[in-house]
Write a structure and sequence with these properties.
single chain; 147 residues; mainly alpha; F1FO ATP Synthase; 4 helices
């Protein structure tokens, strides 16, 4: 059921981006129009995801969820929330690492091709980007350790 709340946050930006919108051809080029619509779609995705995430967080951690310690549904809900949280931390950490490493590694290769003495400095930035995935994995282990 919680997935159904997040589904519109995934679909809505694509609908906005691909829905034909009438823009005067003389004022904006196609490339500029697509860039503007893409940025708006990303902003819409971020805002709607954060709103849905806050609503789900408030729902999961409300006092009514912990009304009865013996209730099996409460323990199942807490267990499901822990697994979802661990999965989100690991997945988003890996996505962030991929984005960071793609930029840092490309810049590092360019710097090394110009001057081979920049290898150590360039690899530090790539290693820092890899740390994001390690931190996400550590947090997911901490979450699963409490279950």
């Amino acid at each position: 059921m919680i997935f159904l709340l997040f589904l519109p946050t995934i679909i809505a930006p694509f609908i906005y981006f691909y829905y034909p919108k009438k823009i005067n051809a003389h004022t904006l080029s196609n490339r500029h129009k697509n860039i503007k619509r893409g940025k708006t779609a990303i902003y819409l995705n971020c805002i709607s995801f954060i709103a849905a995430f806050l609503i789900v967080t408030i729902f999961i951690f409300s006092t009514s969820a912990y009304a009865s310690a013996e209730s099996s549904t409460t323990s199942e809900l807490a267990l499901a929330a822990a697994f979802i949280g661990a999965g989100l931390v690991t997945g988003l950490g890996a996505i962030g690492t991929g984005i960071a490493v793609s930029s840092a590694a490309a810049a590092a290769i360019g710097a090394i091709s110009e001057n081979e003495n920049n290898f150590g400095k360039a690899m530090i930035f790539v290693a820092m980007a890899e740390g994001i995935a390690i931190y996400g994995l550590l947090i997911s282990f901490m979450i699963l350790g409490r279950v």
